[in-house]
Structures are given as C-alpha cells and as structure tokens.
Amino acid sequence: MTIKIEHSWKTYLNTEFEKSYFQDLLKNIAEEYENHTCFPKKTDIFNAFNHCAFDDVKVVIIGQDPYHGVGQANGLCFSVNDGIAHPPSLINIFKEMETDLGIPYPKSGNLTPWADQGVLLLNATLTVRAHEAGSHQKKGWEQFTDSVIKTISSEKENVIFIHWGGYAKKKRKLIDTSKHTIFESGHPSPLSANRGYWFGNKHFSKINSQLEQVGVSAIDWKLP
Predict the structure, then answer these.
(1) Is the pLDDT of residue 2 over 80?
(2) Range of the domain at 96
(3) The model's pTM
(4) Per the database record, which ranges form the Uracil-DNA glycosylase-like domain (predicted)?
(5) CB burial class (10 A; 0-12, 13-18, 19+) of residue 125?
(6) Residue 57: inside a domain, yes or no?
(7) Which value, to the nearest 10 degrees, does the dihedral of the CA atoms of residues 208, 210, 215, 219 take?
(8) Does residue 84 lie in a domain region?
(9) Is residue 221 domain-resident?
(10) Cis amide prior to 40 (ω within 30 degrees)
(11) Degrees, nearest 5: CA angle 81-141-211
C-alpha cells in the first residue's frame, strides 16, 4: 500500500514510516482491503493529513474509529461524505455548535472545511472493515497516531487538543500541557450526551477564544 500524505508531514514522520511495525501495518491493511470491504476508500486513508499540513495545525480533534457504514467515512474523524445522513454523534456535535455559536445546523456532514483551516481531525485507527466496529484496532494504527500526537506536541506550540470521551482523554499523557491547551468533555454520542456530559461544553467558542489569545486566526465553523 502506498502512503499518499501531504509533504510537510514526511519531514516529521518518515522515520515512523520506516519502522517495522508500520511496514507490517501497511501489509496487513493492504490484505484487508484486498479481501474485505473496508473504509474509508484507500485514497482517503490519510485525508486528515492531506487537508491539514503540519505547519497549519491549530486544533487536534481525536476520534477513535472511522464510521463503518457504506459511504460514510472520508478519512476525517466524525466527518461523513456529502449526501450521507448525519450519524448520531455528528448530529450532537452540530447541535452544540448551533447553540454555542448561533450558526445554523448544516446540511452537509463533511468537515473538510474545518480541516482546511488547520483542524486535524484524527482518528486513532485510520481504517475499519465494513460493519465491524473496531476491526482494525491493535494492528499498529494506534502506535502511529500516538506518535503523530507526540510529534505535534514536541514540535509545535499553542495547539489546542480536543478530547471528547474517555478514549480521547487517555491521550492526555502524550501532550506537553505547559505549551498546549486541552479541552475535555463527554463524548457526543447519544449515550454520553443524554447523560449531560456533552451539551454545553462550548468547545467551539472556547477554541476560537484561545486561538485569538495567542494571535492565531479563529476557525470559521460554519458549514454549507
């Protein structure tokens, strides 16, 4: 499997790509795509990086797995392709955004405009077998994406890391909190949101306020 990733990341990740675990991961994932239906499509696996160059990263939102339904996943965490019904977690993300910022609920669930502004929408696992949640966990993706988080933490300053839910919160240990900001809340999934752990976190306005405090342009969260 060929790695098609935006060139600025190669400066920081080439040594990771050469490690034996990553080479084994690529072989394993190539076999999965050959023998099973997997998501996202091969050309979208590294979309989070291809829409957000290393130098442009302002915000990192950490997800767990790609969506495993047909046509949903597009390589960005929580995002779906245009024309696809919004999954429950994304509905709650948009409801919170609507309440927090007073902007209309969008028709499209495609979060590419966020990524293009410097929001790295990073799933811990970048691929999944169709209709089998978590099927590509513990194959090496988590080691790779942990390395990505640690690299951003060590090489950049004033990045905002967003941890929604318990899984994302475990990534706190990878981040130097003396020079980066972390915002945490419950997960936007209905189970967590309906228990009161999601709505009202105001993360969208908090992110923009924090960016402006350090002299960085805010994110335009409005979507089509």
Answers:
(1) no
(2) 7-214
(3) 0.97
(4) 50-211
(5) buried
(6) yes
(7) -20
(8) yes
(9) no
(10) yes
(11) 65
Q: What is the CATH number of the domain that holds 17?
A: 3.40.470.10
Q: Please name the amino acid found at residue 75.
A: G
**How would residue 134 be classed by pLDDT, with cut points 50, 70 and 90?**
very high
The CA–CA distances, whole Å, from 203 to 68, 210, 221 equal 26, 10, 11
d(CA 184, CA 214): 20
* Total domains in the fold of the chain: 1
pLDDT tier at 136 (50, 70, 90 boundaries)? very high
Q: In a 3-state reduction of DSSP, which class is residue 24?
A: helix
- Each residue of 55-101: pLDDT tens digit? 999 999 999 999 999 999 999 999 999 999 999 999 999 999 999 99
Stretch (H or E) spanning 128: strand 128-129
**Residues identified as active-site:** 65
Backbone torsions φ then ψ of 155, nearest 5 degrees: -95, -15
Q: What digits encode the pLDDT tens for the residues 158-200? A: 999 999 999 999 999 999 999 999 999 999 999 898 888 999 9
Using CA atoms, how far residue 38 sits from 12, 127, 142, in Å, is: 28, 7, 18
Q: What amino acid occupies position 165? A: G
Helix axis angle for 20-35 and 141-155, nearest 10°, is 130
Q: What are phi and psi of 102, to 5 degrees?
A: 70, 25
Q: Is the pLDDT of residue 1 over 80?
A: no
